[in-house]
Structures are given as C-alpha cells and as structure tokens.
C-alpha cells in the first residue's frame, strides 16, 4: 500500500507543479483591465486554504474507523544578487527538506498537523511580506485586487502543492520530491514549446533535462540480485 501511495503522490506532484507553473505564467501575462493581482496576497490566501484543508483532514482522521492512521530587465548587479539568492535557497531548501522528512518520519504527529503548523507560520511571514512590499497597493485597491477565476486556480494549485509535497516526503523521500519537481519543470517547458509556442529551449536546457531524467532513473533503479551459481 505504501508503495502505491509513493508513486501516486509523486505523479500528483508532477501534475500539480506543471499545472501551477503554466497557470501562473499565463495569469501574470494575461492582459486585462484594472490592476494585476498581487503575488504576495495570493501566497497568503494559499496558506490559509492549506490550513483549512488540513483542519478538515485532521477532523476526518479523528472519526472512528477500523484503522487509526512583474517582468523587468535584469541588470548585471541584479543578476549577481539573484544568483546569490538562488545559491542560498539551494542550501536552505535542501536542509529544510531533509529536516522536514526527518520530522514527518520520526514523530507521531500526522502529516496534516505538521502542515497546519507550517501553514500558520507561512501565513504570518506572508502577511509580513504583503505589508512590507505591497502594503500601499493593498490599502489603495484592496487585498483581492485583480483576482479573477484564473487567479483562484493558481491559489488552489499552490495550496494543493503544500499538501502533496508533505505526502510525497511522508511516503517517498525528499530526493524523489526534487526529481519529481524537476520532471514537472521539464514537462511544463515542453508544453510551452510545442503547445503554447512561447519558449525556445537551448542546448543547456536539453543537457539539464537529460541529466535529470538519467538521475531519476538511476536513483529509482532496483537491480535484481544475481542468482547463486549452482555448484557442480
């Protein structure tokens, strides 16, 4: 059963991340009258939705049952800052992912309780980001300025991502989660190239895609043990 949950959760994560990347990109490039929605407020709403969903799941688990389980041109300076931010995120994200896996697998708290805790702090820091970066726009045009049907799809997909990632780390591991996310980026890029026709991949992209696919195969490959040779 756990093996089935492992592959199902990985498949859902690939689908969710691919859908989120494509929908988010389209929602930010869609030309409509009025102000655009603020990414900072969308993050907060997604965290609140995740908390509410986890509360419902915790309540469901408590029922008696047989089993109790904006686009700007980048300058050279901003490129350097961006590179440093990405490198910092790589180290911090890697540590956070491994530690989160340790917490989920070595404690008795359910996945949904952990998600409620993470969503609570995520909402606090998200509101701080709204106040610091978009406080003036929110006070002028409202918290939900620019929201439309597509915006709510992005918010729901973002909230779903938090639930799926927790399930992936619980039933698979953090490394497979990274592979699944990388595969979803490759898939969304191919869709952008062949269907939307708004992205032209380079040779570096194809090299990276080959490396990711090869690494995924090698990590998940389970060679069959060689049979014992019969003695004469």
From TrEMBL:
<dbReference type="GO" id="GO:0000139">
    <property type="term" value="C:Golgi membrane"/>
</dbReference>
<keyword id="KW-0813">Transport</keyword>
<feature type="transmembrane region" description="Helical">
    <location>
        <begin position="79"/>
        <end position="100"/>
    </location>
</feature>
<feature type="transmembrane region" description="Helical">
    <location>
        <begin position="6"/>
        <end position="25"/>
    </location>
</feature>
<dbReference type="Pfam" id="PF04142">
    <property type="entry name" value="Nuc_sug_transp"/>
</dbReference>
<feature type="transmembrane region" description="Helical">
    <location>
        <begin position="37"/>
        <end position="59"/>
    </location>
</feature>
<dbReference type="InterPro" id="IPR007271">
    <property type="entry name" value="Nuc_sug_transpt"/>
</dbReference>
<feature type="transmembrane region" description="Helical">
    <location>
        <begin position="179"/>
        <end position="196"/>
    </location>
</feature>
<feature type="transmembrane region" description="Helical">
    <location>
        <begin position="202"/>
        <end position="221"/>
    </location>
</feature>
<feature type="transmembrane region" description="Helical">
    <location>
        <begin position="152"/>
        <end position="172"/>
    </location>
</feature>
<keyword id="KW-1133">Transmembrane helix</keyword>
<feature type="transmembrane region" description="Helical">
    <location>
        <begin position="112"/>
        <end position="132"/>
    </location>
</feature>
<keyword id="KW-0472">Membrane</keyword>
<protein>
    <recommendedName>
        <fullName>Solute carrier family 35 member A3</fullName>
    </recommendedName>
</protein>
<keyword id="KW-0812">Transmembrane</keyword>
<keyword id="KW-0762">Sugar transport</keyword>
<dbReference type="GO" id="GO:0015165">
    <property type="term" value="F:pyrimidine nucleotide-sugar transmembrane transporter activity"/>
</dbReference>
